[in-house]
Amino acid sequence: xxxxxxxxxxxxxxxxxxxxxxxxxxxxxxxxxxxxxxxxxxxxxxxxxxxxxxxxxxxxxxxxxxxxxxxxxxxxxxxxxxxxxxxxxxxxxxxxxxxxxxxxxxxxxxxxxxxxxxxxxxxxxxxxxxxxxxxxxxxxxxxxxxxxxxxxxxxxxxxxxxxxxxxxxxxxxxxxxxxxxxxxxxxxxxxxxxxxxxxxxxxxxxxxxxxxxxxxxxxxxxxxxxxxxxxxxxxxxxxxxxxxxxxxxxxxxxxxxxxxxxxxxxxxxxxxxxxxxxxxxxxxxxxxxxxxxxxxxxxxxxxxxxxxxxxxxxxxxxxxxxxxxxxxxxxxxxxxxxxxxxxxxxxxxxxxxxxxxxxxxxxxxxxxxxxxxxxxxxxxxxxxxxxxxxxxxxxxxxxxxxxxxxxxxxxxxxxxxxxxxxxxxxxxxxxxxxxxxxxxxxxxxxxxxxxxxxxxxxxxxxxxxxxxxxxxxxxxxxxxxxxxxxxxxxxxxxxxxxxxxxxxxxxxxxxxxxxxxxxxxxxxxxxxxxxxxxx
Length: 535
Fold this sequence. Notes:
With 535 residues, the protein is an alpha+beta fold. It is 32% helix and 24% strand. It has three domains: 7-169, no CATH class; 175-263, Pdz3 Domain, CATH 2.30.42; 267-401 and 420-531, 2-enoyl-CoA Hydratase, Chain A, domain 1 (Alpha-Beta Complex), CATH 3.90.226.10. Strands 13-14-15-18-19-22-24-23 form an eight-stranded mixed sheet, sandwiched between helices. A hairpin with a 2-residue loop joins strand 1 and strand 2 (96-100). It is globular. It starts with 6 loop residues before the first helix and ends with a helix.
């Protein structure tokens, strides 16, 4: 394999720590993250040290053989954009490209010889530096080149500056220094949605719907929510001053709070009636499996006989956490997912870990178009096992694994290093995880052939499916409710949600009176319900 510079850097890669599988639609983040020791480049001239490290990593670790002509072309284009094309004249010639500046001009060309392309890239780099008259630095141009390269690879590979890298590491930990509150933006106002029990904001008496006016004396007018979130987060034991308006009061309340390590609540649980447990997993962080264990312990106390596992809107997270979550519902040592990199030897299997699992309990998994990455691993493993029924929409379809590498200057790379496959060998990138029961806004022409049909699944496989339309289910449940003579009193929040959440309600109906994990039995019940719905 081709190495341009700094082969010694790659020797550091052997000491790694598996941490994350990240999404972005974040999430946007199905990343299997490796944190490597700082790498050190040349002893003398340190120009383009970062660039060299990035090229070496791509050459060695990228999931596909890199197209070096494309990489260097993207790097040059991004440098030209940074330098400002208004002062430069870029002309295509029969021999390649010509750049005319205020002082002189250069000509360069790119081919598929990496050494030649590197020399051409450096020629442009030093030309632009000379033309700049110190309007931008070496670091500015080099960073632009790296950003250009990473953006040319695939939608998920990305350069992370030091701040973004630190944030990425913090998010995968599932802990951060903060105030313990969830905020939102509504009608151009930044407001509190909820505070976490016993967090700094909760103890101070901050309430839902309180509206932010200032943070550390800075007026927040026109600020976006992600900017506010960054202001509220920080290192533990540091202080931040908030000014908030309470809608029912005149005036502003001011609080000075001390940030603490906040554990992100990624798992929500409630026991529903009929002995059914509802588990909502919002993301997969280092805390997820521990929080799930607490939920399952409560379910055991409550005598739960079946589970609804809600992965809707879950953008993913840590690969090892998705494996642990799926392990609770599968035979020990059953395959959950496998990954395959560029080389044949870059193959790894992940298998169920627990001897005492809930494999005999019926499970319905809810997914939608925003379920991605680690969510798709769990849904795919439970579906392929033949025990869980998948309900909802096709998932997002992100079947690639990103690895996070730390670079010597404190920045990092999120680089696609492999693809993952469900136990049956399906690459879900194109169609996502295809549910056995699809609940869609409109069925269209398929309605004419009834609710039970054949749909095109992953890899073009013809997959049996029951298709239900949202409006028909809403009408069905309304008619069911109208027939009830007694309405439940003191409804819990989730009961209220379930009354309007038709996917959740349908899953609950499927699991009523089921005592064993039998997908055929659950599907038969779904067909029976579908037959009673008006089309």
